[in-house]
Amino acid sequence: MRYVCSICGYIYDESKEKELFSHLPDSWQCPLCGASKAFFEPEKTEMPVVEKTIRTEMKNTSNDLTSGQLASLFSNLARGFEKQYKEKEAKLALEIAAYFTRIKPVHSSVSIEELSVMLQKDIADYPAVRAIADDQDDRGAARVCVWGEKVTRMLSSLVDQYRQQGERMTADKNIWICSVCGFVYVGDLPPALCPVCKVPEWKFEKIDRRA
Length: 211
Description:
- By secondary structure, the chain is mainly α.
- It is 45% helix and 10% strand.
- It is built from 5 helices and 6 strands, in the order βββαααααβββ.
- The strands form 2 sheets. A 3-stranded antiparallel beta sheet has the order 2-1-3, with no helix packed on it. The protein has a 3-stranded antiparallel beta sheet with strand order 5-4-6.
- A hairpin with a 5-residue loop joins strand 1 and strand 2 (11-13).
- The longest helix has 27 residues, at 139-165.
- It is globular, with a radius of gyration of 18 Å.
- Residues 47-55 have low confidence and may be disordered.
């Protein structure tokens, strides 16, 4: 049996490993991206078919987005344009993202439990959004969905790890973020290649710790 990391695609092949995946401790992490065991899924032999009901449900929902969601959307679009070397489009998308960032409401605080719930909701929404992108044959939007879902899954994994370990999780470690796709990595050094968008390590930025 083979299990695949839903974030970076790393494969745990039981036929090559010394231990069954089910016997691994809950604290085990992906050796490539650091995701927790919960983010591994049995390998599927066939690509899953997107159900019509998902498309219908998404089309029947409200299209209104918050300023924060729009800021994230245009920020991701800017990164997509950068990958395609479309400098003018990337600059415009960044300007729009900056505008929505300025006008979004400021939340005083969010608990770790609330953050976990919000991330899970985002993960659940991605298949329907991806279905619309596929229907429209919009490869740019589809790429944003792929990157966004993987990055969100990683954030959810980090939140789960923090709930279990607390401050010990980041003690004496650095926090890195990919400047292209937003992937977050906790470790002494950034990964040689981003597990999500495959850019080299110099595209990672070190996050300054707050006092």
